[in-house]
Amino acid sequence: MARIVMKFGGTSLADIRCIRNVLCHVKREVDLGHEVAIVVSAMAGTTNQLVSWTQDIADLYNFREYDVVVSSGEQVTAGLLALMLQAEGMNARSWMGWQIPIVTDSVYGCARIKSIDPSKLLKGFQHGQVAVIAGFQGMSFDGNITTLGRGGSDTSAVAIAAVIKASRCDIYTDVDGVYTTDPRIESKARRLSRVAFEEMLEMASLGAKVLQVRSVELAMVHKVRIFVRSSFDMGSASARAEGDFVGTLICDEEEIVEQQFVSGIAFAKDEAQISLRRLADKPGVAAAVFASLAEENINVDMIVQNISEHGATTDMTFTVSSSDLERAVNILERSCHKVICDDLQFESGLAKVSVIGIGMRNHAGVAATAFKALSEKGINIRAITTSEIKISILIDNAYTELAVRILHSVYHLDKE
Amino acid sequence: MARIVMKFGGTSLADIRCIRNVLCHVKREVDLGHEVAIVVSAMAGTTNQLVSWTQDIADLYNFREYDVVVSSGEQVTAGLLALMLQAEGMNARSWMGWQIPIVTDSVYGCARIKSIDPSKLLKGFQHGQVAVIAGFQGMSFDGNITTLGRGGSDTSAVAIAAVIKASRCDIYTDVDGVYTTDPRIESKARRLSRVAFEEMLEMASLGAKVLQVRSVELAMVHKVRIFVRSSFDMGSASARAEGDFVGTLICDEEEIVEQQFVSGIAFAKDEAQISLRRLADKPGVAAAVFASLAEENINVDMIVQNISEHGATTDMTFTVSSSDLERAVNILERSCHKVICDDLQFESGLAKVSVIGIGMRNHAGVAATAFKALSEKGINIRAITTSEIKISILIDNAYTELAVRILHSVYHLDKE
Question: ipTM higher than 0.90?
Answer without folding.
Answer: no
